[in-house]
Design brief:
Blueprint (H helix, E strand, L loop, with lengths): L1 H15 L3 H10 L4 H16 L10 H19 L5 H15 L3 H19 L3 H12 L4 H8 L3 H32 L13
Helix pairs in contact: 2-3, 3-4, 4-5, 7-9, 8-9
């Protein structure tokens, strides 16, 4: 069960996380509040984490958008006031779910490069374990044997790597928001380790 969960976490990290900024931009264009955006994204990740298998998902970006769209629709149904802009943006989602535009493909490539950069910035042992486990799909037991560490260390470093990457992505998104609001540029986000 833990290995299956690790596989889903790796899949989310590799196939879903790179699309989070695009989903957030779409939600902002749909006039969704910042707090609601955070809640919708978090709920989407919870739904994805609850999956027992992801092999049936052919287009992860479209699947992620569909989850968020359904969550937003549920929220709109519960709301008494619906903005027309939100409805128009919801209609445009169908185009995104079918085939990505060249702009979206380019944005996806940028996001993939961004995630690769953050992986490269992880502490050495954490990065090596993360790459072996989450990217190359090497078993926890084989990594532990190869590196001469315990399986618990392999599991902890894999989780630590994913958490650091997710935190850095959120921080970069927050910096971008602040730069946009303040009109100022700030430094590059670095992976922050707790030790």
């Amino acid at each position: 069960m833990a290995e299956s969960r690790d596989r889903i976490v790796a899949w989310v990290g590799a196939r879903i996380m790179p699309h989070e900024p695009a989903v957030r931009r779409w939600l902002r264009r749909s006039m969704v509040s910042r707090e609601d955006i955070d809640d919708l994204i978090q709920e989407a990740y919870c739904r994805l984490a609850g999956l027992s298998d992801v092999s049936h998902i052919e287009k992860p970006h479209a699947y992620f958008m569909l989850i968020v769209q359904n969550l937003l629709m549920d929220q709109i149904r519960r709301s008494r006031i619906v903005r027309f802009e939100t409805i128009a943006e919801m209609d445009s989602l169908a185009l995104f779910a079918d085939e990505p535009s060249p702009e979206r493909i380019t944005a996806g490539r940028r996001e993939l490069a961004r995630v690769r950069r953050l992986i490269a910035a992880l502490p050495d042992r954490c990065r090596r374990i993360f790459e072996l486990r989450k990217i190359e799909g090497v078993s926890q037991k084989d990594i532990a044997r190869t590196l001469g560490v315990s399986e618990a260390t392999v599991e902890n470093e894999g989780v630590k790597g994913l958490r650091l990457i997710m935190a850095a992505l959120r921080e970069e998104d927050d910096e971008f928001r602040h730069e946009t609001l303040d009109g100022k540029a700030s430094g590059r986000t670095r992976i922050r380790t707790a030790g």
